[in-house]
Design brief:
The chain has 8 helices and no strands. The protein is mainly alpha-helical and 205 residues long.
């Protein structure tokens, strides 16, 4: 790939990498609300190992005592039998996710059993592999397609006769979504729309 094309690709990747921040702020991308998400996975590991420290990094320091208390309650109930264990696990999972979401300033609407969205699965895989090549391809393809579609719509309606209100409104109906979308992508790239994330204080201790 020529150097200038490679540079353009990398710049585009930097811009669209932050689209994940926009996506995760919507209910459809609430990855931590899924039973297969990282929060529940950590909570399950904590219960099996009888070590609350395995999940505490997902909540704020101020909420640590609450999680420890819920953890002890869950352990006690788990010992009562298989059905009690299932209920106790669910209670602990929901408690951890609810508190985690509250720390992000996001609502909790319950746990869901679904596979992670493809872009989130790709993100997790990239982190695991230590390489972002495939993730960049997905992000760049998505932003290129989104820009192309919106730009074409605005371009196709821009040459309307002054005074032709109906035609002018068609242009506005295409122009406004284009500019708002671009503003959203640019804001995400600058980090001004990011979902709340744990601070260094969340580090596992």
């Amino acid at each position: 790939m020529p150097d200038h094309h490679n540079t353009m690709f990398r710049r585009a990747a930097i811009v669209v990498a932050s689209l994940a921040a926009l996506a995760v702020s919507t209910p459809a991308f609430a990855h931590c609300d899924t039973l297969k998400g990282p929060v529940v996975t950590a909570a399950a590991a904590a219960l099996e190992a009888r070590d609350p420290g395995l999940v505490l990094h997902w909540v704020r320091p101020a909420d640590e005592a609450l999680i420890r208390s819920a953890f002890q309650q869950a352990l006690a109930v788990r010992a009562l039998g298989p059905e009690a264990k299932a209920l106790a696990d669910r209670y602990f999972f929901e408690t951890v996710v609810r508190i985690h979401r509250a720390g992000e300033g996001a609502p909790y609407t319950g746990l869901v059993d679904r596979e992670p969205e493809p872009i989130i699965a790709a993100t997790d895989q990239a982190i695991s592999l230590g390489a972002t090549d495939e993730l960049e391809k997905l992000l760049v393809a998505k932003v290129r397609a989104g820009l192309s579609e919106r730009f074409a719509a605005a371009r196709a309606t821009r040459d309307f006769r002054p005074g032709d209100v109906a035609a002018g409104r068609k242009f506005v109906a295409a122009y406004v979504p284009l500019t708002h979308w671009i503003e959203g992508v640019f804001a995400a790239a600058e980090g001004t729309t990011e979902h709340a994330v744990p601070t260094a204080e969340h580090a596992h201790r």
